[in-house]
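FW: tagging you since you asked about this chain on Friday. Here's the raw sequence from the shared folder, copied in full. Didn't touch anything.
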Amino acid sequence: MFSSILRAAGRILRGRLVLSLTLLTLPFLVALSAQAVVVTGVKKVVVLRVYFQDYSNTSRYTQAQVQGFFNNMNTLWGTNTSHGNISITAQANSALIQLPDNRSSYIDDFPDGDLSNGTKFQKVIDDAIANSSGMDWTNVDAVIVVMSETSLTQFHRGQGGTCNARMGPGSSATPLVGCAIFSENPGSTDPQVWGRWSHELGHAFQTRGAIHPSNYNSSFEQMDANYPGQTGMFEQQSSTDFGWMPDSKYKTITAITGGATVALYAQEYDPAGKPNMQAIKAYLGSGGSAYYLISVRRRVLGDDLNASFPSAGIPDEGVLIERVVPGGDQEVTLQGKGGDRDKLWQEGDTFTNASDGIWIFVNKKFDADNYDITVRYADQASKADVGIKSWLAPPGNTYETTDLWIDSPVNGYGMFRYGSWSDLLGGTVPQGNGDDPAIGQVNRIYARVRNFGAATAQNVVVHFDLTDPLGLGINGSNGFQTLGSVDQTAFPGLASIPAGGSVDVYIEWTPNVALTPAQIAAGTFNFHSCMRVRIDHLANETIFGNQDGDGTQENIDYFQAPATGPGVGGGAPNTTVIHLRNDSMVNKKYFNISYDRKLVPPGWEVSVNGGVFGMELAPNEVRAVPVKITPTSPMPAGSVAKVKVFASSFRLLSSDKDPKDKHPEFKQLGGVLVEGHAVHKTHIKCEAERRDGVVFFQGKIDIPGNAQLNERQMVVMYSGAVPGGRRGEWKFLARPTGLAHFDRTGAFRGQIRLAKFKYGTCMFAGTDTLSSAIAPVSPVK
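HL: got it, structure written out here
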């Protein structure tokens, strides 16, 4: 679409240099840098102690006891698990807050444990805040509600994640913060109670949402069922949720190397204490996809607290082996000794998975903290693993994969508006969407298809999908239509992708939308669609989580905002519509909508769905969710404001060792990143004249006096146009078109041979500091 070039308050393009076909043979060993996530700093928590309208003003714990539990959590999360990266400061109210309604308005009772379903979770948060007093609401990171309970027959499971909460009674500010609710559960011991609270508090700090890595099937992970206890080496990676363990502490091994022997130091200890490795990542291929995560576990520094086993702490000490499929429905699966996930591996033991072609030997226990481990490969050396990088991963850490982008013809194929960045796998890619698709023009949707495996991938077939209906969507696996497919016929490189190699492929897409005169005058228009890539399974591969379309998507929306300049104030509101689809074809679902505006300038107004954050959708129902952003203060040209909008639904996880042990999770269905780019407003004029079958275009671009025109890199596109409707809309012709460079004055000229169109226009894609623009459609003279 001329969306790079045109957008109602617009969308903007992004840029970088790209090859139409690239065959790389780089080892995909991920070396994450400063762009990775590390959760740091003081985490301020407001703790609201409440009781229900139909309950007496009594509680199991005093304010001092509750404060003491959060002091315990500060030691567990701050001193031990985060190794001093964070500290928790909590303030608990002294007098209990009475909620305005009965318990049944906030809690649903079940025989195996109670929950707050649908609107009830948010109602607990909202009513507790609205009836609170005397609390400090500045710079709050999490809001915790402790529901007083004295009955031994009641047990609330506890629910936690993030939500948009008001910062005090009557406040209009609703930032995204950690939110958790739970009861005092009189039938549990104190460590069991504050351990469960600590688990919910952990959800407040996870960068990817409320994640249970093993779907609640690990007693070695605080974010599964180890509470109180430490979070493990998977969650501590900078590429997942916390980033507290340096990348240098993970020894990477691939099938190409054949294996290695590594001495490991127990994961519970501060990585600054010794230079030793504290984990092995044994990839099933050349790196970047599934892997085995190997660590040493001890009952020390918080892992000696779990009260659920005969010996306090984690259920066993020794070598923990986990199979990891990043982005999978269950990302981590424990490989327990003898098939028992609570039993760890000891000196002399050998773990084998013939299908994965991996052998792990526990060679030596030097002492309780240090083990010698050998990893060897065999069968996996004969397997390929095709896929693309998932979203919610560095360097963007949002709803885009670096391996999918758009190339618009408006600024010339291979040229992008905002430059490139590292994909952290040894290459460079366009940032974000690359370009916005140009309406009426032949855009290219690119995918970088990788072979993460150790053997050649042959005869690869790639499918491109768009959301249905077209436009931004949060869909899960449903609600896509296939745009088309490519194979080795169009891109010979797909016939044989070597281990560690990649091929850039594309499919052409011409969105057909008519523009109104107002949209043309504005030089921008709103149009965007969520894209995804799927890749057919190969005969010689066993890992499919990075090629089935789940998370291998691009979901970014851009709009243009006025840049700082003489007489420039705020800008016009930009409204984006997101289509939320219930991913279940048979069951209705309740969804929570949340948004994170941490990277929005102070004072900018953000409204998501008119402030209604919960909605129930029928099976496969699609609901429009408007997102309105109003710039109220200018930004310097080239700066960017970002709002992340995402949808979560409730599901109940069950332990594989005890089906009665269930735990709720707010699972993210997906999200959209809305970006506002501050640019100087440009205007373009052009006219067309026919001579001997050739249409000659000439015109000029006007830019603000303090902005720069780089005539060597900036181009204008000219094309024909035809009427597109009864209200004066216009459609632009995809062929033939032409490109021309500006001269130093901003003037340009060009021609199209054998052109039969009667109307013409000119389009400018914009830059990181200049807005896109389109000339009024005019008759060819």
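FW: The longest helix spans residues 63-81.
HL: agreed, and The radius of gyration is 28 Å.
FW: great, closing this out.
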